[in-house]
Amino acid sequence: MLVNLKELCAVAEQRNIAVGGFNAVDVHSLKAVIRAAEELDAPIAIMFAQLHEKFTHIEDVAALMLRYAKDASVPVCVQLDHGEDLDYVKKALDLGFTAVMFDGSALPYEENAAQTAKVVEMARAYGSSVEGELGSLGKREYGDGASVGDDTKTYTDPQLARQFIADTGIDALACSFGTTHGFYVEKPKLNFEIVRQIRKLSGDVPIVMHGGSGVSEEDLRRSIDAGVRKINYFTYMDKAGAAAIRSRLENWGEGQPLLTKLMVSAEDAMEENVKGAIRVFLNR
């Protein structure tokens, strides 16, 4: 069932859970995520980030993402993750995405707010939702192994977040409270009070956690209790798929390795990894 992000977060709020936002960059990751969500009866977002263009083009996966979402037995939002410019955001909307995330976190506040407000106005014409970002998690390059010590990280000011929400009209806010994209090299120290204060000051606008991979189950649950309603998760899912391929190659036995069989192994491993994450997001 295809829904937008506002509808998805409303379900999460009602059930006091977080929905998982999983990047689906090809048919294998897409099938893994959808199967996991359906088995656990979990609402989810499937996402494609602009930075994934280096691996595949959004046009190549959009129709597939939308078909799987429409056919799914659970609510599924199809979202652009980390859109970096308005032209790319419009491309995603034209392709049928039901939510877009504009990442202007590296911009000065005034420019971030102005650009995000333009995205909101644009998305409304499509019936799509908008996620904005204030504060910075630091590096976001795919698989860069960024650590929590990244000196480009900027924590979100709750008072400024209230102003940002009012200035832009966004449906959800990605805020920085201690997580980082990529792999953690040390345990993250999360400031849950930032989340609580933003929720209190903003009229309960849903909060999104980026960099969910590698965060402990305890901290994920504490984030949900504080008011996080969507958790983006991809790196460890991707890692699980790679580990399955390596294991299959090392234990192949007779005959020659076949890519099709290797990808099925990766798909199954990603599904199991995603199910583990979803169970935490559902507070199970």
Shape annotation:
globular
How many structurally independent domains?
Answer: 1
H/I helix tally: 10
Radius of gyration, CA atoms, in whole angstroms: 18 Å
Break the fold down into its secondary structure elements and pairings.
Blueprint: E1 2-3, H1 5-15, E2 19-23, H2 27-40, E3 44-49, H3 58-71, E4 76-83, H4 86-95, E5 99-102, H5 109-124, E6 129-134, H6 158-168, E7 172-175, H7 192-202, E8 207-209, H8 217-226, E9 228-233, H9 235-250, H10 259-281
Report on this model:
- By secondary structure, the protein is α/β, with parallel strands linked by helices.
- It has a single domain, classed as Alpha-Beta Barrel (TIM Barrel), CATH 3.20.20.70.
- 48% of the residues lie in helices and 15% in strands.
- The chain contains 10 helices and 9 strands.
- The protein has helices at residues 5-15, 27-40, 58-71, 86-95, 109-124, 158-168, 192-202, 217-226, 235-250, 259-281, and strands spanning 2-3, 19-23, 44-49, 76-83, 99-102, 129-134, 172-175, 207-209, 228-233.
- An 8-stranded parallel beta barrel has the order 2-3-4-5-6-7-8-9, surrounded by 10 helices.
- Helix 5 (109-124) links the parallel strand 5 (99-102) and strand 6.
- The longest helix has 23 residues, at 259-281.
- It is globular.
- The model is unreliable at 141-149 (pLDDT under 50).
